[in-house]
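Progress note, project year one: complex with NDP.
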Amino acid sequence: MESTLIRAAIVGSTGYGGVELIRLLQSHPKVTVTSVISSSAAGTPIAEGFPHLTEIRTDLLDGIDMDLIRSKADVVFLATPHGISMKLAPQFLEAGLKVIDLSGDFRLKSGDVYKQWYKHEPADQALVDRAVYGLAEVYGEQVATSDFISNPGCFTTSALLGLYPAVKAGWINPDSIIIDAKSGVSGAGRGLNLSAHYSEINENFKAYKINKHQHTPEIEQVLSEAAGRPVITTFTTHLVPMTRGIMCTMYATLTEKRATADFVELYRQFYEGRKFVRVRPDGTWPATKEVFGTNYCDIGFSIDERTGRITFISVIDNLVKGAAGQAIQNLNLLMNWDETLGLQFTPVYP
Ligand SMILES: NC(=O)C1=CN([C@@H]2O[C@H](COP(=O)(O)OP(=O)(O)OC[C@H]3O[C@@H](n4cnc5c(N)ncnc54)[C@H](OP(=O)(O)O)[C@@H]3O)[C@@H](O)[C@H]2O)C=CC1
Ligand SMILES: CC(=O)N[C@@H](CCC(=O)OP(=O)(O)O)C(=O)O
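Model obtained:
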């Protein structure tokens, strides 16, 4: 029934995260998108810029008009860059709307750490404190009692879902962790930049932001909570010539001798009942195509008995589990709905 639908507005609808929210929410049984918002193309039909939405969405893009959005929506997704979300979120919260922010603005609890990694002033500390970090499989209970969610970064989601249970259980030495992360180009957003040019990325594979990536402190913040003490990690990101997908290949030293099958069991227990994390059996490892277009995070392991080290492989679709999908999962959790509503897709394969 129409009256039972929650009304959603999407700010940043013309970006990759925003367009993915539109795609996914189109088939959500309890949500209707009532406003697609653009700061640069208000008044034009969304299908004009995105012909794949022809005859799917006939809306004109709204501008950022607080009164209009307040009157049209119950929840707002901010698919906006960092620095912008911190200006918009307080206005929507004051108006009584639920806010789910996809940017990095509210993820780091320390303003000093934010400033060090993002190179500009942090958001208001009271708002940062109010935001719940929406790593859904770990902090789902806190999400369920909040009205303001800070959605995790894409690399962070993949890395943390792959590492958190082992760190929490004390099965790996957190100081030994090395995270080797690879992303498709859509992770950089729709804006034009040189490294995303076809001729720069095609048949190319390159590392970037080494020891400077803004997801480093985000990963460390959560691993420190899991370990019960400060943790620092080595985290290196790479750009891969594909559109979607993240793979984190991660290495750590075992705290005592264990078999790969023990990790499979530990992870299956930790994620029991959480449909979006799929733990691979001993001897198989996931590939990005196996989660393409879905909210799944697939995880596999291998222990090298010669070195006493374990390798973790964790894959996600950066635009779904790494952004829009997890944002909708968080909406489901905060509305106390089944977390899988509107997100039950089979991966696109091949
Ligand atoms: N791409 C990914 O895989 C992931 C992205 N994220 C985060 O999600 C957010 C959106 O990312 P993504 O969609 O990729 O980025 P894009 O660059 O593709 O889109 C961002 C959108 O924000 C809007 N915008 C830009 N400046 C302003 C402004 N001053 N006021 C209001 N809106 C503005 C623009 O839309 P318009 O001009 O129409 O207003 C733009 O389309 C970012 O914070 C990003 O870091 C998080 C996880 C993964
Ligand atoms: C391929 C690529 O460029 N990816 C982006 C991460 C996208 C993301 O999650 O960004 P936020 O943390 O800013 O929300 C990057 O490495 O900065």
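The chain has a mean pLDDT of 97.
Residues 12, 14-18, 38-41, 64, 79-82, 84, 102-103, 153-154, 186-187, 189-191, 318-319, 322-323 surround NDP (ligand 1) (CB under 6 Å).
No further modelling is planned for this target in the current period.
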